[in-house]
C-alpha cells in the first residue's frame, strides 16, 4: 500500500476529535483546489510499513478517538486497506474514513465487514467545477456520490459532511440534493477554500478565481441553519491545517 506518511496525534482532521491519521496515495478525481495533489498523483509516496504503523497506533490508542484514513482517495487501495483495518479492529481502535464517496462497491465491502465506524466526505459542488473532470464524467461521479451517501445511511454510520466553499458558484442545488439522500446522523463543516500562500493548490489560476470566498460562506450557513442542520465553519486563517487531507 502506498502512503505519504502518518501523524500519531492530530486534532485537525475530524471535527472535535483526536485522530491518528494516515495518508494514502492515488485519487480518481482531479479537484483544481486540491492541495494534496502530489499525494493524489502518487508523488512523494512510499510503501507502507504496516508493522511499524500498528506498533505506533497501539502506543497512541489511549489518546485518540479514531484511526483516520485520508489521502488522496483511500479507496483506490481498498483491498490492502481492508486488510490493514482488520488489524486495526483487533487493537480495538474505532476507524474514520475520509473518502470522496465515488468508489461505492469497495466502500460497501468495507462497511459490510464492519471495518469503518465514521465517514468524512465532501459535497463538492458544482461537481463539474470542483471535480476537475469533463462534464459527463463529473455527472456520473456525482450520481455515484449520491449512491455513496445512501450506502453510508444504510449502515447507519455518523457522517462528517464537509463543503469546500468556492467563490463565484452557487452550490446550493447540489447541497440540497445531497442532504435529501441522507438518512443517518450527520453534521456539516464549511471549509472556505484557501489558496496561496497558505496552501499549494493544484491549479493556481483556478484558485486565484475561486478560492477565498466571502458571502458564499455565510449564505450557505444561513440556508443550512434554516433547515436545522448542525453547522461549523472553519475560518479562512485556519484553512491549511483544517483542510489537510480532504478528499
Ligand atoms: S481534493 Fe480529495 S478528491 Fe479531490 S483530487 Fe484532492 S485528494 Fe482527490
UniProtKB/TrEMBL annotation:
GO terms for molecular function: catalytic activity; iron-sulfur cluster binding; metal ion binding. Gene3D superfamilies: Aldolase class I (3.20.20.70). This is Anaerobic ribonucleoside-triphosphate reductase activating protein. The keyword Cell inner membrane does not apply. It comes from Thermococcus waiotapuensis. Keywords: Iron, Iron-sulfur, Metal-binding, S-adenosyl-L-methionine. PROSITE patterns: RADICAL_SAM. Residues 14-227 form the Radical SAM core domain. It comes from the Archaea.
Amino acid at each position: 500500500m502506498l502512503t505519504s506518511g502518518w501523524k500519531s496525534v492530530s486534532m485537525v482532521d475530524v471535527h472535535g476529535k483526536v485522530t491518528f491519521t494516515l495518508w494514502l496515495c492515488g485519487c480518481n478525481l482531479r479537484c483544481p483546489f486540491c492541495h494534496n495533489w502530489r499525494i493524489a498523483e502518487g508523488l512523494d509516496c512510499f510503501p507502507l510499513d504496516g508493522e511499524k504503523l500498528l506498533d505506533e497506533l497501539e502506543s497512541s490508542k489511549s489518546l485518540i478517538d479514531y484511526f483516520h484514513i485520508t489521502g488522496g482517495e483511500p479507496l483506490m487501495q481498498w483491498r490492502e486497506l481492508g486488510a490493514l483495518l482488520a488489524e486495526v479492529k483487533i487493537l480495538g481502535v474505532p476507524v474514520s474514513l475520509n473518502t470522496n464517496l465515488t468508489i461505492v462497491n469497495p466502500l460497501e465491502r468495507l462497511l459490510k465487514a464492519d471495518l469503518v465506524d465514521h465517514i468524512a466526505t465532501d459535497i463538492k459542488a458544482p461537481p463539474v467545477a470542483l471535480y476537475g473532470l469533463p462534464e459527463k464524467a463529473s455527472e456520473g461521479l456525482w450520481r455515484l456520490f449520491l449512491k455513496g451517501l445512501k450506502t453510508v445511511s444504510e449502515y447507519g454510520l455518523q457522517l462528517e459532511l464537509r463543503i469546500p466553499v468556492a467563490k463565484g458558484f452557487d452550490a446550493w442545488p447540489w447541497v440540497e440534493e445531497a442532504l435529501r439522500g441522507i438518512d443517518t446522523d450527520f453534521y456539516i463543516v464549511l471549509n472556505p477554500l484557501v489558496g496561496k500562500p497558505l496552501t499549494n493548490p493544484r491549479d493556481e489560476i483556478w484558485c486565484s478565481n475561486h478560492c477565498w470566498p466571502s458571502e458564499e460562506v455565510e449564505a450557505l450557513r444561513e440556508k443550512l441553519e434554516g433547515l436545522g442542520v448542525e453547522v461549523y465553519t472553519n475560518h479562512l486563517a485556519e484553512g491549511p491545517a483544517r483542510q489537510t487531507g480532504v478528499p
